[in-house]
Amino acid sequence: MSWFHKMLFPPMCLLFVVLCFSCAEPNPGVFRTQQEHPSEIFKANFEGPSLEEAWLGGWQLPLQERLFLKPDPLNTTNQIICMTVKPGDMVAKGSRSELIWNHLDPEGSERWISWKVYIPEDFPYAKTIRDDKGRPNWQIMGQWHDTPKEGEESSHSPPLAIQTVFIDKQDPNYARSLSELKGIVGFDASWDKKKVFLLGHGAPPKGAAFWPATPGKWQTWLLHVKWSQKDDGFVQLWVDGKDITKGKKMGKNMYNELPNYFKLGLYRNPDIDVTQTVCYDDLRYGPTRKDAETP
Known about the structure:
By secondary structure, the chain is mainly β. Helices cover 12% and strands 38% of the residues. It has a single domain, classed as Jelly Rolls. A hairpin with a 4-residue loop joins strand 10 and strand 11. About 5% of the residues have low confidence.
């Protein structure tokens, strides 16, 4: 993995070491196991009087109040789900508030997944690509995590993830990474103090595509993925109907034969010292594009 990709994607084994020193008495957190066995098609519109009815998957939360339902700020007749991470929030060896869905996708399967994401206008970004300790300032809003084999502990970066990044030409990391940034689909060298999203893909991951973030507005993400330990694996991403990856991005996206599982929410560098909230709606998961695009 190049310097740039190490700079952006969370090094899991390093994170475990950091946490040993940063959390003498870690919060045990709030966990919920998946309540529904996966079928070929899964949909969640986050409607319902309670979290337990609005979401049938699992979750990992530092505190229960970090996960909540609320009216859509742009359409108060619609209900959405939101997750918050505050400074010091730790659970499952990370700074996170995440939903979990294990679709048990076998190697060789193709899946279509769509969901909507809303970042508030006042969302406070980490202002540099790396923190003062030289670690990536990752802020992941959707990831597929590998499943370690029995007796193993995962030390891999997610083979498929979407994170948000603040591009600032005054960032001391910017000049060092510029040549590689230019090699990623969608990057614009004129960006400065720009809020963007980055798709990472591969085992290990590399930057696959950039596109602008739109705080205060919804975006609809549609992913088509084939899971494979070989180079015939791929991902393709559309945002609001636009092909962001410009076709399929090919490559291995499984570390072993066990299924990757989906995590939706916010997972970030534990040293980010601001409160962040992100919201989601209309998750759809199935074997065909129609499954992912039909309410």
